[in-house]
């Protein structure tokens, strides 16, 4: 018979799967890879929970996902396609934000994803990525500046239809389906 802990873990996995998969996609730019990494992170959480528990399951699975991309070789090309689930959002804007996000270094991208999509605070991100608070803040500032610069350089910026920069870029990418 399942225990309360088993039920809570099951609910966590069911509730967080889609958002975690979206974060994995933002890190890797590939839905198949995002699905594999998300499943592996959640399987690791289940195994670790069976060995005595995890204090913060959300931080644990995010650390697993970020670690998977930290050790993975970067692909040279990312092709982003706006999906029907992104209706109501500007698909060009969504694609521009995703493309700019993947121009960032893996650490900057991890900090931006954890901060703006997962909603972690600086100290939590520092724990997840094993960095100092100062390094997290530096990566966040560098990432936001780079996103602003990259989005401003897009062809749409020259036409006046560019995606928003900075923190608004994170909101624009919310159109990425989970």
If you had to describe this structure to a student in words, what would you say it looks like?
This protein has 9 helices and no strands. With 178 residues, the protein is mainly α. α2 (31-50) crosses α3 (57-70). The two termini are 32 Å apart.
Shape: globular
Give the biggest sheet. Answer: none
**Which structural class is indicated by helix and strand composition?**
mainly alpha
Mean pLDDT over the residues: 78
Report the helical percentage: 55-70%
Overall radius of gyration: 17 Å
Tally of individual helices: 9
Q: What separation lies between the terminal Cα atoms? A: 32 Å
As a percent range, the share of strand residues is under 5%
Low-confidence blocks of residues: 76-82, 161-178
Q: SSE order in H/E notation?
A: HHHHHHHHH
Can you summarize this structure?
The protein is an all-alpha fold. It has nine helices and no strands.
Summarize the SSE layout with pairings.
Blueprint: H1 4-28, H2 31-50, H3 57-70, H4 91-101, H5 106-117, H6 122-129, H7 133-152, H8 155-159, H9 167-172
Keywords:
178 residues; mainly alpha; 9 helices; 68% helix; 0% strand
